[in-house]
Amino acid sequence: MLRRDYPGLDCSVAKALEVIGERWSLLIVRAVMHGNRRFGEIQESLGIARNVLSARLERLVEEDILERRAYQEGPPRFEYFLTEKGLDLWPALIALLHWGDRYSPSPDGPRRLIVHKECGGGVSERGTCESCGKVLHARDARELPGSESESTPFAAEAI
Amino acid sequence: MLRRDYPGLDCSVAKALEVIGERWSLLIVRAVMHGNRRFGEIQESLGIARNVLSARLERLVEEDILERRAYQEGPPRFEYFLTEKGLDLWPALIALLHWGDRYSPSPDGPRRLIVHKECGGGVSERGTCESCGKVLHARDARELPGSESESTPFAAEAI
DNA sequence: GTGGCTTAGTTGCATGAAGCAACTGATGTG
DNA sequence: CACATCAGTTGCTTCATGCAACTAAGCCAC
User: Does B97 contact A at CB distance below 8 Å?
Assistant: First the structure.
C-alpha cells in the first residue's frame, strides 16, 4: 500500500481510511468482534501472514482501536480487546456486511446472522433491530451460527 | 496490496472488501458521488496517480459499481456514473464519514454537511434524517459546502 | 499547417508493502 | 532431555504503488 495516508484530502472518509483502510485492518477488527482475542486465533481465523498481523495489531493498538491486555505473566501473553473507538466501527461493518451479502451472496443464504440480543430480531443494514426498531450498538448484538458453527459473541464481552 | 482478495474467508465483509477494499477505491466512489465524473476531475480531486486511477476505474466498472458513458465522439471522452450497486455503498460511506468525523475531527467542525434534500435535516450516522426520521438512500441526500465551497450534489444526478 | 492546449490515458522505472517460511525465546509437559 | 505451544521477528521474493514522462486524438489560433 506504499502509504496508508491520503495527504491533502480534507475528507472524513479519507481520515477514517487512513486508520482502518489498510488491507486486513477491518477484518482484524471484525475477527476481534467475533470473539477472537489472541494472536494465534486471529491469525488462524483470517489466514493472514504473521508479520502482517503483528504490524496491524501494533498500529490498531496505537490508534486506540484495540487494547492489548496481558492474561498471563509466565511467558507474557496478550489478548486484544476492542475499545469504544473500535466498537464504534460496528455500524460501518454492518453496512459493509449487508452490502457484501447483497452483491456477493453465498449460495446458502447469509453467511452469519446478526441479531439483537434483547429480542432476537435481525439487524438491518442500518444497524437497527428489524423487530423492535431500536437503534443498536455493538454490544446490543450477537452473531448466530448461520451455516457454520463456532463461538458467536459478536462483541459480547468485547470489553 | 499484493492481492486484493481474501481467499478462504467466508465472510460478507471480506467479500465487500475484495471489491472496494483496495487503496483509493472507496474514495473514488465518494468522489463520483460528490459530482466528479471525469478522469481529470477525479484525479485532481484525490491527487491519485493517473495509472492507479486508470486501473481502479477499470475494475470498478468491471464490478458494476461505476458505469462508463461516452459524452462525446470526437476524441472519445467518458464520464463515470454510479450504478445502483455503487449507490448502495452510501450507508457504509456515511458510517465511515461519521466515524472519521468523530475520531479525526477537523478543527472547524464537520468537513462537509450531508443533509436530507426534502427537509434539510442532517443525516445521522445510520443514514436517517435527524429531522424527519426517514431512512434515507444516496439519492435523498445532498452535500452542503461546510467549510470549503465547491460543487455539492451528493449523488444528486448520480445516475 | 505548425505549434500549442486539453483530455484520457499508458509506459518505464524505483520503492516498499505483502506473503511465505524458517527462526527465536520463554515456558510447560511427558 | 526432547517436544510442543504461543507470540511474535527476520530474511527473502514478488507484486502493487507513485512518479514522471510519453502517446494519441482532436481543437484552436495564427
Answer: yes
